[in-house]
């Protein structure tokens, strides 16, 4: 799948997630089959908010099973509005972590026990630091951890790099990794053949879980607002929010 620029990702049509016949054929899986009892669940997010977009529903379900939770945000997301005077990087570096706290609260995450590590890597430049990222992730993993991260072929350079780096770290430590598609669903339909359908599993979500996930996504006010003065559309475009209304999330096992 061709790597996407930030602007490409914002403008992609929603063609795979609402048109591919394979979606209906994906077998369902229960969260307890993904993470055995007592296992620590680790979410590796390239940017603040990716954990909500990728697995906000799954996170809710796993938290009710009382798994220990670790969230790793590798960047502060401050490069989401390049060239903007309304949302400069200096403002976003403060705002986006605050938005993440509110989003996690809206998901119902146990903030008193959730451990949160911030990597401090440069946003929108992760492929150049892939080895360092892998070493950083491995430092916080333990054997037997169940790790969720972005798919290594998601179509966004940062997401792809984090998927590869996480896989390497898990192999080194002895943790199990699952990958999550985010931007891949918004690729042209002709690229649907790139989706590893044989690995796909569907985590079903009830109405309340979907509603809380959407409520959490709306905590990212900076991502719901682009910058019309420079022609920058919102990162959380309406089509992406519509996909989040689906009563399931997809995991590549």
UniProtKB/TrEMBL annotation:
<dbReference type="GO" id="GO:0016811">
    <property type="term" value="F:hydrolase activity, acting on carbon-nitrogen (but not peptide) bonds, in linear amides"/>
</dbReference>
<protein>
    <submittedName>
        <fullName>Acetylglucosaminylphosphatidylinositol deacetylase</fullName>
    </submittedName>
</protein>
<dbReference type="InterPro" id="IPR003737">
    <property type="entry name" value="GlcNAc_PI_deacetylase-related"/>
</dbReference>
<dbReference type="Pfam" id="PF02585">
    <property type="entry name" value="PIG-L"/>
</dbReference>
<dbReference type="InterPro" id="IPR024078">
    <property type="entry name" value="LmbE-like_dom_sf"/>
</dbReference>
